Amino acid sequence: MKMTARFFARLTRHPNDNRVHWLAWALLGLLLASLPWLVAAGFGNTWLRILNFALLYVMLALGLNIVVGFAGLLDMGYIAFYAVGAYLWALLASPQFGLHWPLWAILPIGAGVAGLFGVMLGAPTLKLRGDYLAIVTLGFGEIIRIFLNNLNAPVNITNGPQGISAIDAVHFGNVSLARPLDLGFITLPPLVSYYYLFLVAALLIIGIAIRLERSRVGRAWAAIREDEVAAKACGINTRNVKLLAFAMGATFGGVAGGLFAGFQQFVSPESFGLLESVMVLCMVVLGGMGHIPGVIFGALLLTVLPEFFRQIAGPVQQSLFGSVLVDPESLRMLLFGLALVLVMRYRPSGLWPSPQRRREIEDVQRADAPQDVPVSPM
Amino acid sequence: MDIFLQQIINGVVLGSIYALVALGYTMVYGILGLINFAHGEVVMIGALVSYSVMTALLPSGMPPVLLALISVLVAAPVCMALAWGIERYAYRPLRHAPKLAPLISAIGVSILLQNLAMMIWGRSYHAFPDILPAIHFDIGGAQITLLQTVTIGLAALTMAILSWMIQRTTLGQAMRATAENPAIAELMGIPVNRIITLTFIIGAALAALAGLMVGANYSVAHYYMGFMLGLKAFTAAVLGGIGNITGAMLGGLLLGLIESLGAGYIEDLTGGFLGSNYQDIFAFLVLIGVLVFRPGGLMGERVSERA
Questions:
Q1: Can you tell me the ipTM of this complex?
Q2: Which of A37, A339, B73, B192 has the fewest CB atoms within 10 Å, counting from its CB?
Q3: Chain-chain contact of B295 with A139 (C-beta, under 8 angstroms)
Q4: Taking 90 as the threshold, does the pLDDT of residue B244 lie above it?
Q5: How far apart are CA B126 and CA B55, in angstroms?
Q6: A104: closest CA among A335, A258, A283, A314?
């Protein structure tokens, strides 16, 4: 774990050091390219589906990471932007309105509209501090969900709680990803072609996120995160930069949402509840806020681990006690909750924080130590 | 007019429950600066424990009021012990961790409690037994039931006692000092850790009472009830200015009124375009509105940005 962590950290820190690392990159590329085949062969299509969802969550977590990790703005309604992207796709490419627009029209529109929603959320909340911001964004997310749930009367727009079904699959011209894709030398099953699509999208988003972090805007975000007043004094237009953070994060969410709708071919308000927002936030914080590899790791872990619990919770009980004593679904969530508490207790800065941030936190803790309220047993 | 008055009565009942729960959020926030996300689940556990005690004792033929009293006497210690455990094991180790860590831990506790409750009480909705006879009084064309009267009265009494305790007793003084500055309070000889634990425990006792009230007034209890209730109560606390005791009471009452009036009149206001299923939106819209103009909440101090 530590070895691989260091290895990947070096990968991301010295992208130009081709001499040492081209082989590592090639290996990583080969692994990513062959992963769907390995997973499908080894674990079946269920896990391939989960892998696809993991990639969607990577995109979401990276989007939220811009707002929470880079700019330090606690957003607890992030899933709203995912919902906006998904519903836009659903409305523009389904029998709901009889529209069947192509990918390159919908995806930019979805991203743009989600970005607009991001600004809509950001604008009134510019002055709010941490926890107030958290509750307002949470409320915003709920408002979006309630509207999606109820906009079926008097004019039916979202089809209410039933959601929108029969959404067009992702397609390029006449080539639909929902059917096996014949490339001449190989035929890709739908799940695999979606995997490659999501992988490309996720890699693109990772690239953008890395570039953003190192850009002028990225440094401005970091400055605001560390001390907003000081950032302002340094001549940073905090208003615009914060709005940009909300917009960028929302855009990523919108793209992921669109892809989700095209993949699932069904959307309903149920997929966009508060628990989903919380889940994405957990991915960011658990992985290591503001640290891109950490966030990716967090997203993968929190998608795969609960599914793993789901798969084994029943059979393990069966073999241990001879019968299923506890509902596997609640057992897995129980373990998930417990895991959150334990990870935060023993790794409060996340499982894989950026080295710089870890140092800062250790410094702060050391500086705090003398005036510490002693924890005495009572 | 009578519909208006009726909605006001319903709003005050809902609001007093919100206020009781909001107090738990606001006291903890005032001292630790922590959103105790698990507080809503403590209310839920309180409601379900009272439900279990009451249904278990129902065949004994005791008068329902006595049952309610016994159930709250059982539920309150359970909730207090729970809050103690949460504070001790999920929050205290994180007191100097980065800001988001306790929040995630709180979310974890919340998920854990919800699923624990689901394992114990199952997924179904439990019908709460009637505590008080279905008597109602007429006021100006509207009706208020005995249960609603008792709920409002009991909530008011509890809050009065709490205010007195915080303003007049040594414990209250210690709590206020800890909220002001834990390090200095410690130097003044205040056992800060004990005060923090006590704050959690007092909040949990209020939560147990609120749980019984929710169950009795809406005749239903289930494992998922704490979530939305907690969210609304927290909204109420923020509305009033989080960390402020009077603010929490005011915010709770206001939120209850806004919701019930909003749900009652939204169809008329929008010409039937939006129905009462938009009830939940009001809470959040009002919250956003208030915070845009008064970022510190209604009763909150104007917090200057740290330099």
A1: 0.85
A2: B73
A3: no
A4: no
A5: 10
A6: A258
